[in-house]
Amino acid sequence: MNPPQTSNSVEESNISLLRNDMQIYESEQFEKEPFLISLPYEPEAKVDEIFDIDSSEEENEESALKIYKNQTFQTWDDAETFLKKYTLEQGFSIRKRRTETCIEDGIEVMHKISWKCSCASKYKPKKVLNLEDQQNRRSKYTGCEWKINGNMLKSSLVVTFTTVENSHNHPMSSAPSTTIAYNRKLGEDMIEFVDFCVTHSITRAQNIGQLLRGKFPSRKIYKKNLYNAIQNAKIKLSFKNELDASNLLQHMYSLKTNDPR
């Protein structure tokens, strides 16, 4: 026969049962609601990582643009933009020498483009003159062999440089840097995107720079040019808002004038 339990032993037994119940409850809650791990705070990307370094702010900066065979671009416009930047930095000019198109689903599609140096041709006089009377004139045409062939295959849907002849037989421009500043400007499509961002209350240069990086991955973005584009977008937006307010005021005034009451 078990001895009778005292009041203290009964309380200890109840406390023990309560603790067991709490442990079971906590284990069930752990299975249903796992711990949330707090990740360390990561600051936003540095501005220098978003923008390209302005070449006008650094001396003796070498061109980062390289041209090579099998280089690819998303569109023909991207390829021509790249070639324009490259030739300006190198100090020479190019021309389209040949284009080939094909019809796909009733639409004319560019298939091939050939670019050559502007000095590629050789001077051929239209008429033969007396050598004694002919002046000693120099032509810019030197028969330069620099040439790029671009091709867009139906299977790839990208522009590829299939031929790259990257050699010249004439000196480059002595001061190509005079035209590089123009080349650093944002394109019209990028300016339209900046206007769109400012119109929708995105005005921080860092945020717009990140969006531009995602939308135009192959284009360079310089801080000074982006800041100018943002300020111009703000001015255009302010003028538009003032014009809208003026039009609204004129409309309300006309309603008041035409109101017979």
TrEMBL record:
Superkingdom of the source species: Eukaryota
Protein name: 16711_t:CDS:1
